[in-house]
Every structure is written in structure tokens, then in C-alpha cells.
Amino acid sequence: MVITQTRSKRKPSGGRYKVMPTKRKAQKGGIPTHTTIGEKRVRVERAIGGNKKIKLLHINKVNVMNPKTKKSSVESIKTIAENPANRHWIRRNILSKGAVIETSKGKAKVTNRPSQEGFVNAVLI
What we know:
mainly beta, Structural Genomics Hypothetical 15.5 Kd Protein In mrcA-pckA Intergenic Region, Chain A, five-stranded mixed barrel
């Protein structure tokens, strides 16, 4: 069955809306992309208007910015230390925004949404 992002069939009062339109391709949703640590692999998907979305499946490099020196460098990801989005993602090594990762320069916090942007940015903490 297709995942769609449509309004509810019921009103806030609990009553039903009169007519429910059929599913449209523009309302199509997708299953979440859980980005993990590994050799870089992406999947390109078509979006509305012929645009492209880059879904990041695996990555082992991160753009780390040092807030004191304002310099950034590309470092390797060792493991994930914390993930406030879901505590079970730590042992599965799933990257998301806000996750604290172990890099070759120390601990860093992910500042972007890797599964939707195709790369990982982080700030040293």
C-alpha cells in the first residue's frame, strides 16, 4: 500500500468530511531513510517539479567545524555516542540531526539532516 500524506478523514469534532479525494502522486510519502556508517552510498529520487532529492544511505566522512578557530575539515566517523532522537539508534549507528558522533578530532554534534541532504555537517563540542 502506498504511503500518502493527506489530511485526516475526520474533523477535529470527530465528524467525517463529506468527500474524500482519491490519492494523487503529489501526495506520495516515503519510508524514512536511516543513514548509517559505511562506505558512501546515495539514492536519487525524483521530487515534485522534476527536482531531485538525494537520500543518503551510508556515509563514513563528516565536515567538522571547530567553533574556536572557525576552520572546518573532513574527518572520518568512528561511531555514534548519543542520539536524542531515538536511544535505540545508538547501537544501530543511525545518523540524524542532533546526534553526537565520535570523530578523529573528538566528539561532534550533527547540525544538518543527513538523510535528506546527502552529506553530514557537524560542530565540535
